[in-house]
Design brief:
Order of helices and strands: HHHHEEHHH
Strand content: 5-15%
Radius of gyration: 22 Å
Helix content: over 70%
Length: 155
């Protein structure tokens, strides 16, 4: 829970502060992540000592454990989606002129769906990860597409 969801949420908040030039970003991350983490470890130690494995059995039978995991997953997906929309910035300067009128592709993409290019890029990278492509190859693909796209005036 803490490594998979809570760390990402805290990092997203800390990074958003840091991107604005605020030096409190890393401190906010450490506070938001460590205080609940250490608190749960501390009180969880005593709770686990008193109730043992019967607590997990009781939570599992009542369905509470499944609800906690589901809610954490939904929260994680929401945070990652908002991080994509706010932190990934991909635009295209591509404009063409047809019969005296300019067509701005970025405006068209924004009218279809704001932040469409970052979303498509993220989904493409996710698909590569899902197909077990090595991270080093993914990084090289990103660099190559960015370099060639900027040379051709597409990015």
């Amino acid at each position: 829970f803490f490594w998979g969801v809570f760390r990402i949420v805290a990092a997203g908040i800390g990074v958003s502060f840091s991107l604005k030039g605020n030096l409190l970003g890393p401190i906010i991350f450490l506070i938001l992540y460590n205080i609940p983490n250490i608190g749960v470890k501390y009180y969880g130690l005593f709770l686990g000592y008193k109730q043992g494995s019967s607590l997990l059995t009781k939570w599992s039978k009542s369905g509470m454990l499944d609800r906690i995991v589901h809610c954490a997953g939904v929260l994680g997906v929401m945070v990652i989606g908002s991080m994509i929309a706010t932190m990934v910035d991909i635009t295209t300067p591509l404009k063409i002129t047809l019969e005296g009128s300019k067509i701005d592709f970025q405006k068209i993409f924004d009218q279809i769906m704001p932040k469409l290019l970052p979303l498509l890029t993220t989904l493409g990278i996710y698909q590569l990860i899902k197909n077990n492509v090595k991270m080093s190859y993914i990084m090289l693909i990103i660099l190559a597409v960015g370099f060639v796209g900027s040379l051709l005036g597409l990015l």
